[in-house]
Amino acid sequence: MRSEERAGIIAAILLFTWGTLVTEPLHIFTNLIFAYIDSGIAKLSLSSAGKAGAVVTIVIAAALVLGFMLLSRTEAVKYMPCAFVMITTIGYVSKCIVSRHYTLSSTIAVSAALLAIGVVYILHLKSVVLWIADAYILSLGMHILTGAFFIPLKGINKVLDKIFYITLRQHGNLMKPFAGFLHIPAPAWGFFFTVLLLLPSAYYAFSRKKG
Question: How many domains does the chain have?
Answer without folding.
Answer: 1
